[in-house]
Design goal:
Blueprint lengths: L1 H22 L6 H28 L14
């Protein structure tokens, strides 16, 4: 399902951006980074939860590009 692919890509990019931000944090930016981690960490968790629901609803068939919906 296209939505699953898009969400996986967004989650990957978002997680990478958060990791980079944390790696480049300085004492001067620590408070800003902490707030950003709180806000964006929650957003990332929400996206991961949405992905889990979609993947449970539409499991991928490894032999095709199609998703099969569970009944």
């Amino acid at each position: 399902m296209e939505k699953i692919k898009e969400l996986r890509a967004k989650i990957g990019a978002f997680a990478s951006a958060l990791e980079k931000m944390n790696a480049e944090a300085t004492p001067e930016t620590a408070l800003t980074v902490e707030v950003a981690n709180d806000v964006f960490g929650k957003m990332l968790a929400e996206m991961q939860e949405e992905l889990a629901v979609l993947e449970a609803t539409f499991p991928e068939n490894p032999f095709t590009n199609l998703s099969i919906r569970k009944s």
